[in-house]
Amino acid sequence: MDVIREGGIGFLGSRLKRLGERMQAGAARVTADAGLPVQPAHMAFLAALDGDAQTIGQLVQAVGISQPGVTRSVGQLVELGLVRSEQGEDQRQRTISLTPEGAAVLARARVHVWPPVEDAVRALLGKDADAFMAQITMLETALAETPLEVLAAQSSQPILVVREYTDSLAHHFADINAEWINEMFHLEAADQLVLDNPRKHIIDAGGTILFVEARGLGIVGAGALQPSHDGGLELTKMGVRSSARGLKAGEFLLAALIERAQSMKGDPLYLLTNARCSAAVHLYEKLGFRHDAEIMARYGSRYERCNVAMRYPIAG
């Protein structure tokens, strides 16, 4: 599996970097075959210095990379004897210029490296070569005007959304709940009955199952509202995958379930849990559930693990 390719447009930067590295590697072999002592990354600096000395700041603008990157490349070219660095008229700046050896390397590159590399790229891109380069130019201009992090902050797509139950999502309901129950307890017969056939025991019985989907992760949480024989409504089988911790998916889902329960008018709205589920109990308390001895007496015997029973106050 190619993770970067399968990652889609969100991995565009990594994909372009990888593509650039592959193309640079090929260009480096062409350059070496031509007997030139430079790397492809040096070519832009040699071209920028053709005919005119430049300061480091001017090279930053000409090549479009960071000042540390420019300084590093200039140092390499100085060591190769292809450019010279001299004190400028302004004592705070140095000017960079081609040596005769550098001018000779640039001339050979124009003849022996640039044309075959350009031909190779055009062969790769075919009739779309000019359109592709125009698209690259458009992307560079757009990023210069508005950085990627600014555009990302402007995204209006919600991170979390609620999904209604469908039979195609039933396996998520079973997997999510089996994960947390087995992690802390063990699946009881009452659990297995519902997880094996949620449509029969919840949906067809007049209940509801909601899922929370996290953008980029898929379905990460599930919870149910199961009618009781006496008109009550149990909030049950609610869990969130460990991979989604930190996203507040549980709070988001619980709020949606409470809102749905209020429209279903079941009374009492209650839940049964265990004190070991301290984070969940805290969340239930935060959103309005209260510990209730009557609920424990009426419904608590359903599960061996139940030692906490809570009721949500129904607005009257």
From TrEMBL:
The protein, known as: N-acetyltransferase domain-containing protein
GO terms (BP aspect): response to stress
PROSITE patterns according to UniProt: GNAT
N-acetyltransferase domain sequence ranges: 160-315
Transmembrane feature ranges: none
MF terms (GO), sorted A to Z: acyltransferase activity, transferring groups other than amino-acyl groups; DNA-binding transcription factor activity
SUPFAM superfamilies: Acyl-CoA N-acyltransferases (Nat) (SSF55729), Winged helix' DNA-binding domain (SSF46785)
InterPro entries referenced in this protein's UniProt entry, alphabetically: Acyl_CoA_acyltransferase, ArsR-like_HTH, GNAT_dom, HTH_MarR-typ, MarR/SlyA-like, WH-like_DNA-bd_sf, WH_DNA-bd_sf
